[in-house]
Amino acid sequence: MPEAAGGQARIEPIIQAFHLFSARHGVVLGVFIPTVTAGAAPLLPALGYSVCNHA
């Protein structure tokens, strides 16, 4: 068995596991990030205002 083929065979399950992980956690991040952004959005003008006042 050539070394290149053996190396590819070892990497393949890792790639598959990564894709599975991404598929599962991509949904979580897809929900989590907009939720956090929406939660932070009202604070941003206040934060910008205080930064401008202190500058």
Q: Can you characterise this structure?
A:
The chain is an all-alpha fold and 55 residues long. It contains 2 helices and no strands. The mean pLDDT is 75.
Share of helix, binned: over 70%
What overall geometry do the principal axes of the alpha carbons give? elongated
- Count of helical regions: 2
How far is the N terminus from the C terminus? 67 Å
Integer-rounded radius of gyration = 22 Å
H-E string:
HH
Question: Stretches where pLDDT falls below 50 for ≥5 residues?
Answer: none
Let me know the largest β-sheet.
Answer: none
Proportion of strand residues: under 5%
Number of strands: 0
Structural class: mainly alpha
The residue-averaged pLDDT reads 75
Q: Which oligomerization state do the chains in this entry correspond to? A: single chain
Summarize the model shown.
The protein is mainly α and 55 residues long.
Summary tags:
55 residues; mainly alpha; 91% helix
Topology of helices and strands:
Layout: H1 3-40, H2 43-54
